[in-house]
């Protein structure tokens, strides 16, 4: 029967029962380039869901899909099943249609055994979108030229539906279902990205993924009319090889990575197939895919033996009998001969699925029993509160949750940037993996002292030409921020001793005969790490209490700093009691914008004079109090105090503090472990202050957040303070993995990526800074909420302090617990600092930030008001 053409408003995804003929619906395509929602709904993995990949085109992916479907939908099965086959991208359409092949071939296999079947089969084939050329080929003379206003001349929403019912008459209770869908089709049998260029119908990655996600969410009757007995299988078949381009040009292994579905790899049994199969396998695993099995056609070369040797029993390799070469062969006998292999594949896939789900369920319980989480009171974290992270893709976690008895993998935005380390989007994540893998393969790990190798040298060159440009000449590698601070203290103290004649080979005695003791000048609310020396260099806090560190004494002069914030849409300057002055006017503590805070013209203001007098007096009084206890270094977190509560210290105060110390030959340390590498909108927070340190510490985002690495940069004069004829005068500090090649390679890639406008759309190359990320109206709206005490926004950071009193304030506060849980349920992974909630957006995602702001605004505002 000829196809039925409908020019009605019939719903595109309606199901028509008992059709023995294909139904075609032609609708204008209007949404192929619509942006996906910010927080994409999750994937239901209650039932087995797999992607079938090929090591190349023509290796039999569609035969494997059909054979697997036939095995699952066996007519001899007592339990009905459902099988969803999805072909996101099809070229050569309509002459070649993999979804049509699967539908018709499985139907033919089912019909062949219809006499002995226990259950029936409802098989359907759908095509959702096709290029104009493909639609014309399909419809011939019935094709109508589309209007430019109705979707353009390049594409049509082609909803073709073909349905067949086999066996059991009209009864549906014991009926299995096969649903086959092609999402996008082009006429020419070429790579999809070329088909788009020649035929039109461009499809953005986000649009393709969103349509695919919606198709995966289709209900096929599992747990419904069949009393929950029907198991649903979902299989996505890719086009070409694992690294073949999709419609946009993005490699398919990257295109589908946000789903990270388990995989079946169809290998190649022909000459050259071993290499092609291994390359495809490594392509997938290097991107985080789990491959459950490899299956390939037997060409008499025993390729499976070499593959099993390479895989070292990590996964099974299945072999299919040779495929008949006769084009007239309907392959039904071949499928029958292959049934045991497909049954084995089905068992492997089901077993892997069950083990994965069981492991996800076991993880929270085992974590609570085996882990000792940092900065966590375990009694406050019941098992149900543990977040199970299945993977990460760019800025999102993929977390496991059970919702309404469904096993869900849900994206959750990493709003705290995993303790301030993260910056990559999904594209950059893959690029980092490539460089890290290359470095690990080339070097493994090699010793650093007295040696040089390319990753370390390149990283040092980039650091000194970046965050250290204009002042630093030496790079000292370490492993994390605390260690970098310990090293910085040793550097600064030695420099102070050198400048002030305190020789390294003996103790200079004070007038009372006591040994000289060096201390730091630092700010209250500071945090420089959890190692002993770093803790001594910070003011008393929750982190340094006796119960946390009985050895802590606080070896420093700690000043209370002024801070800036937004309240009721106005930037305010809050002065501690020690800086209050009758000479200051109200306008001295109000600012029209954040930029005004950093304006150099403030250096001549009354506030600046007040700061200078206070700092000078504090240093003079301290020096007069003891001739043996000296301030040997200034250490500050430039601009933002992170762990202390996300306080924005008045940059004018810190600038004057630096100048006063440098005038007294007190070395200056900038702890930029948090603030460095664009976190605050500039490559270095020193640019915001308008002054330079003698020593600076960097970490976290320096490597793109994938592997740990830290550095301490220093001026040449600091380095010279360690020069001498004895090794005992050298800097005796280090660790086993100093300048490890993997970390250095990752850092080199990240440093270049973030300040390349071709890879970071948010980088303003003319001003050498990030573009504005946060919507001003959104920020002002938050600052005006009755429940909000203050808002700080700078670069990628947004911090909100909620109004609270007594024990509800400070680091130990649980005041934000309910809000945090609401935001996590909303798709935002928040980790608060007491009653302070903060978010960090990704530097390379400026184009998505307006929608992110709207999403955050509606979520956070509603939660706060509750």
From TrEMBL:
Coiled coil: none annotated. It is found in: Mitochondrion. It comes from the Eukaryota. PANTHER family: ADENOSYLMETHIONINE-8-AMINO-7-OXONONANOATE AMINOTRANSFERASE (PTHR42684). It holds the Pfam family Aminotran_3. GO terms for biological process: biotin biosynthetic process. Transmembrane segments: none annotated. Keywords: Aminotransferase, Pyridoxal phosphate, Transferase. The lineage of its organism: Eukaryota, Viridiplantae, Streptophyta, Embryophyta, Tracheophyta. One of its GO terms (cellular component) is mitochondrion. GO terms for molecular function: adenosylmethionine-8-amino-7-oxononanoate transaminase activity; dethiobiotin synthase activity; pyridoxal phosphate binding. The keyword Lipoprotein does not apply. This is Dethiobiotin synthase. Its main location: mitochondrion. InterPro entries: Aminotrans_3, Aminotrans_3_PPA_site, P-loop_NTPase, PyrdxlP-dep_Trfase, PyrdxlP-dep_Trfase_major, PyrdxlP-dep_Trfase_small. It comes from Ensete ventricosum (Abyssinian banana).
């Amino acid at each position: 029967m000829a196809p039925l053409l409908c020019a009605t408003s019939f719903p595109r995804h309606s199901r028509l029962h008992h059709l023995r003929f294909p139904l075609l619906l032609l609708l204008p395509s209007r949404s192929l380039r619509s942006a996906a929602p910010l927080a994409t709904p999750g994937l239901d993995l209650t039932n087995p869901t797999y992607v079938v990949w090929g090591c190349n085109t023509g290796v039999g992916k569609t035969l494997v899909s059909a054979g697997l479907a036939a095995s699952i939908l066996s007519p001899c099965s007592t339990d009905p099943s459902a099988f969803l086959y999805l072909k996101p991208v099809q070229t050569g359409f309509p002459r070649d249609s993999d979804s049509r092949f699967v539908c018709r071939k499985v139907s033919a296999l089912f019909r062949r055994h219809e006499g002995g079947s226990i259950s029936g089969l409802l098989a359907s084939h759908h095509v959702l979108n096709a290029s104009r050329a493909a639609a014309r080929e399909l419809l011939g003379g019935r094709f109508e030229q589309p209007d430019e206003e109705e979707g353009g001349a390049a594409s049509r929403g082609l909803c073709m539906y073909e349905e067949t019912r086999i066996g059991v008459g009209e009864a549906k209770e014991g009926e299995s279902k096969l649903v086959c869908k092609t999402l996008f089709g082009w006429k020419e049998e070429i790579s999809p990205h070329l088909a788009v260029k020649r035929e039109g119908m461009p499809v953005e990655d986000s649009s393709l993924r969103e349509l695919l996600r919606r198709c995966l969410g289709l209900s096929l009757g599992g747990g419904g009319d069949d009393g929950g007995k029907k198991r649903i299988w979902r299989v996505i078949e890719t086009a070409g090889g694992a690294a073949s381009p999709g419609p946009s040009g993005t490699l398919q292994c990257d295109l589908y990575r946000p789903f990270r579905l388990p995989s079946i790899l169809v290998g190649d049994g022909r000459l050259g197939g071993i290499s092609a199969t291994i390359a495809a396998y490594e392509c997938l695993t290097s991107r985080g895919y789990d491959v459950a099995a490899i299956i390939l056609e037997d060409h008499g070369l025993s390729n499976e033996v070499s593959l099993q040797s390479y895989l070292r029993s990590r996964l099974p390799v299945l072999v299919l009998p040779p495929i008949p070469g006769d084009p007239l062969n309907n392959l039904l006998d071949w499928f029958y001969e292959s049934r045991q292999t497909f049954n084995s594949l089905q068992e492997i896939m089901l077993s892997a699925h069950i083990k994965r789900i069981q492991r996800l369920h076991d993880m929270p319980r085992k974590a609570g029993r085996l882990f000792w989480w940092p900065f966590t009171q375990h009694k406050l974290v019941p098992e149900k509160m543990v977040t199970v992270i299945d993977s990460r893709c760019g800025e999102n976690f993929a977390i496991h949750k059970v919702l309404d008895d469904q096993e869900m993998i849900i994206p959750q935005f990493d709003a705290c940037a995993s303790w301030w380390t993260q910056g990559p989007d999904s594209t950059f994540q893959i690029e980092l993996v490539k460089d890290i893998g290359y470095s690990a393969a080339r070097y493994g790990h090699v010793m650093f002292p007295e040696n040089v190798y390319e990753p370390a040298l390149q990283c040092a060159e980039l650091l000194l030409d970046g965050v250290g440009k204009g002042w630093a000449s030496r790079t000292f590698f370490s492993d994390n921020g605390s260690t970098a601070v310990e090293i910085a203290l040793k550097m600064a103290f030695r420099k102070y001793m050198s400048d002030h004649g305190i020789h390294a080979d003996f103790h200079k005695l004070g007038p009372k005969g006591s040994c000289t003791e060096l201390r730091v000048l630092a700010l209250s609310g500071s945090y420089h790490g959890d190692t002993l020396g770093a803790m001594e260099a910070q003011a008393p806090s929750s982190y340094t209490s006796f119960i946390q560190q009985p050895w802590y004494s606080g070896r420093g002069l700690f000043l209370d700093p002024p801070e800036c914030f937004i309240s009721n849409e106005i930037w305010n300057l809050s002065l501690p009691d020690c800086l209050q002055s009758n000479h200051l006017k109200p306008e001295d503590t109000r600012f029209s914008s954040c930029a005004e805070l950093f304006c150099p013209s403030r250096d001549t203001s009354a506030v600046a004079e007040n700061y200078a007098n206070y700092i000078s007096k504090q240093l003079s009084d301290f020096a007069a109090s003891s001739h043996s206890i000296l301030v040997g270094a200034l250490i500050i977190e430039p601009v933002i105090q992170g762990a202390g509560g996300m306080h924005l210290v008045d940059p004018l105060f810190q600038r004057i503090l630096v100048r006063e110390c440098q005038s007294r030959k007190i070395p200056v340390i900038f702890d930029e472990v948090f603030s460095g590498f664009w976190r605050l909108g500039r490559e270095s927070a020193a640019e915001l202050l308008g002054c330079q340190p003698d020593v600076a510490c960097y970490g976290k985002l320096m490597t793109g957040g994938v592997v740990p690495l830290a550095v301490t940069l220093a001026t040449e004069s600091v380095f010279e303070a360690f020069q001498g004829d004895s090794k005992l005068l050298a800097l005796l500090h280090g660790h086993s993995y100093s300048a490890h090649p993997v970390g250095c390679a990752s850092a080199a890639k990240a440093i270049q990526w973030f300040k390349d406008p071709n890879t970071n759309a948010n980088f303003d190359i003319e001003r050498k800074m990030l573009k504005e990320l946060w919507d001003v109206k959104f920020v002002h709206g938050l600052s005006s909420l009755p429940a909000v005490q203050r808002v700080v926004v700078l670069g990628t950071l947004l911090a909100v302090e909620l109004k609270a009193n007594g024990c509800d304030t400070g680091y130990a506060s649980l005041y934000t617990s309910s809000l945090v849980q609401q935001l996590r349920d909303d798709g935002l992974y928040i980790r608060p600092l007491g009653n302070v909630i903060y978010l960090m957006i990704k530097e390379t995602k400026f184009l998505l930030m307006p929608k992110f702001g709207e999403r955050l605004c509606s979520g956070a505002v509603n939660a706060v008001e509750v």
